[in-house]
Amino acid sequence: MPTDEYILYFSVFFQQSLTQSAAIEAGREGEKNSIKESIKYGNKTTAVESVAKCTNLSQSSMADNYKTAPFDARFPNQNQTKNCWQNYVDYHRCQKIKGEDYEPCDYFRRVYKSLCPLRWVETWDEQREEGCFPGKI
Predict the structure, then answer these.
(1) pTM of the model
(2) Cα gap 122→113, rounded to integer Å
(3) pLDDT tens by residue, 109-119
């Protein structure tokens, strides 16, 4: 079964097609139109509810974990690779300096989890464990 992170990542990029296809499969034309309207006017709650129904997750767990990274003026372009990297490094620096129980470090974790592909994070975690991570933490 896919992890919650994978499902959230999937839902962000494919929520419109997934929710529309779910409504079509269920044969509910009215629901299909309401989902289209919700997405069109930015009602994320309805889209998240539909994705939760399709993936058999509770609505509250989807909505609680559905967060995107805020705008950062240091990274104004569409490519967010550097933003991902910087927040990953900042999170681990913060934990090293302040300790693992320091709550403000969680901000960096939430941002890098929102921006970074899971495979990159897994690779960087492995590199840190092996002592060959290229960043200065």
Answers:
(1) 0.54
(2) 11
(3) 999 999 999 99
In this structure, the answer to whether residues 55 and 31 fall within a common structural domain is yes
Domain tally, the chain? 2
Q: Is residue 71 part of a domain?
A: no
Under a CB-based contact definition with an 8 Å cutoff, are residues 3 and 12 in contact? Answer: no
Whether 106 has a pLDDT exceeding 90, the answer reads yes
Contacts of 106 (CB under 8 A, 6+ apart): none
Percent of the chain with pLDDT over 70: 52
Three-state SS string across the chain, please? CCCHHHHHHHHHHHHHHHHHHHHHHHCCHHHHHHHHHHHHCCCHHHHHHHHHHHHCCCHHHHHHHCCCCCCCCCCCCCCCHHHHHHHHHHHHHHHHHHCCCCCCHHHHHHHHHHHCCHHHHHHHHHHHHHCCCCCCC
